[in-house]
């Protein structure tokens, strides 16, 4: 009992001494503060690099999964098939959203690709689909925009390929 109490007392004194020393150095030593700032900046850079690599690997995984699935199961072109396909993909996406977010996102992407007004369905997705799945759907749209979304994007302004430079631009 006495030995355990002595060991605990020594450990508590050592921890308190280290805390007091650390606090003193933090308050009074410019070099110590500089080294702490350098370590914080270095750690922040490492964390940003890690986040960037993670995002890129996630984007690559989404891209390969989407393109492989579209190659394996193409989107129908017939109007009656598209309606049934939309309902099927939404139902499948809702079921898969709990287990496999990439597979669910692919289903929701395919449903968006056949929907006549994709901006409306994106608003519905944002409210009803889990956030991680919605983020993957947006990534898929950025990687490989469906024809319905591409037509909306092109209506937003003139196509750069169609605009001819004037003589003033060339001077």
TrEMBL record:
One of its GO terms (molecular function) is mitochondrion targeting sequence binding. It is a single-pass membrane protein. One of its GO terms (biological process) is protein targeting. Pfam families: MAS20. It comes from the Eukaryota. InterPro entries: MAS20, Tom20_dom_sf. Its main location: mitochondrion. The keyword Protease does not apply. Keywords: Membrane, Mitochondrion, Mitochondrion outer membrane, Protein transport, Transmembrane, Transmembrane helix, Transport. One of its GO terms (cellular component) is mitochondrial outer membrane translocase complex. The keyword Ribosomal protein does not apply. It is found in: Mitochondrion outer membrane. Belongs to the Tom20 family. This is Mitochondrial import receptor subunit TOM20. It comes from Lodderomyces elongisporus (strain ATCC 11503 / CBS 2605 / JCM 1781 / NBRC 1676 / NRRL YB-4239).
């Amino acid at each position: 009992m006495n030995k355990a109490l002595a060991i605990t007392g020594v450990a508590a004194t050592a921890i308190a001494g280290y805390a007091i020393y650390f606090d003193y150095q933090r308050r009074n030593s410019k070099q110590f503060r500089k080294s702490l700032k350098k370590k914080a900046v270095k750690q922040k850079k490492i964390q940003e690099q890690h986040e960037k690599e993670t995002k890129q690997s996630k984007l690559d995984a989404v891209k390969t999964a989407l393109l492989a699935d579209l190659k394996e199961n193409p989107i129908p072109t017939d109007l009656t098939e598209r309606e049934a396909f939309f309902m099927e993909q939404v139902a499948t996406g809702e079921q898969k959203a709990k287990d496999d977010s990439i597979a669910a996102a692919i289903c929701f992407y395919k449903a968006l690709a056949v929907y006549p007004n994709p901006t409306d369905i994106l608003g519905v997705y944002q409210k009803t689909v889990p956030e991680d799945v919605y983020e993957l759907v947006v990534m898929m749209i950025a990687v490989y925009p469906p024809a319905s979304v591409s037509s909306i994007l092109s209506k937003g302004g003139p196509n750069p390929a169609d605009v001819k430079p004037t003589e003033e631009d060339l001077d």
